[in-house]
Amino acid sequence: MSRQDHSPLPEPRKIPCDPARAACTAASGPRLASWGCLGAYASLVCALLSVSGCLVTDPVTFKDEVNVPPVIIGDRKIPVGSIIKVDVTAAGPNELRIPVTIRDENVGQELFERTLVTKSNGYVFYTCPEPSIPPSGSVNRSDFQIVINKTDLNPGECHRVDFVVSSRFTHCENAVSDGGPLDNEQVATVVGLFDQASDFTDIARARYWIWEVSGGALSNPQAAQALAESCKVIDATHPSSTVP
Fold first, then answer.
1. For residues 99 and 76, what is the distance between their CA atoms, to the nearest angstrom?
2. CA–CA distance, 175 with 111 (Å, rounded to integer)
């Protein structure tokens, strides 16, 4: 027969713990003490993680780039608003080139330009498709010129040149009809849409005047006065919404 041991059971062994950790002081045996201390340890780890910046935060959102309207800066020799004298009979290139600088704070934005020449007997459009003014990596895009064909100018007369720049032009209307010259209503429609943009603040305007001086238009005071007066006639008979 096996021998039975009737000696009393040993007292439960107490685990020494820091009195500040309540989870350990109440342990009634080795297993309960271990779980209590693990819980306190886990709490300590979580506290350290939160201090070290491991908190879950809302995603960071960035605002869209603000669209700043462009600005047209005239050349030092030919400021905006200048009167430019041209002799179409003189030797040289058939193009009049007016240098300008386009300033745009949105350095990566593609811009477009439109040019409209108004003369006593109508308009000359340089609008469709609009030539692009590509980004240059700088706020100033200085390598640009307004190009006017000299053959589009009337001898001995004044001409108004309106130049506009925008990134958001609308209604690029072609001023040339397959059926022939446009009638007055069609012309008025094209002129009215010349400087229209989807954002009316996102547009820059400039105006120049061209005097065609061939044939001695400036040879005497009376001829010069008549040439100057023809500019006023254009403004009166061909009003424009374009304001430089």
1. 9
2. 21
CB 106 within 8 A of CB 232: no
> What's the pLDDT score for residue 10?
53
pLDDT of 149: 94
Q: Do residues 206 and 79 make contact, with C-beta atoms less than 8 angstroms apart?
A: no
Fill in the DSSP letter of residue 78.
S
C-alpha distances out from residue 202 to 83, 108, 143, Å: 27, 15, 21
CB–CB of 201/110 below 8 Å? no
Contact 29, 12 (CB under 8 A): yes
Q: What is the pTM of this model?
A: 0.69
Token pair in block for residue 45: 């780890």
CA-based nearest residue to 72, from 193, 156, 178, 162: 162
pLDDT in tens, 15-25: 444 444 444 44
For the chain, how far is it from start to end, CA to CA, in angstroms?
121
How many other CB atoms are there within 10 angstroms of residue 135's CB atom? 14
DSSP letter at 199? S
| pLDDT value at 53 more than 60 | no
pLDDT in tens, 216-235: 888 888 888 888 888 888 88
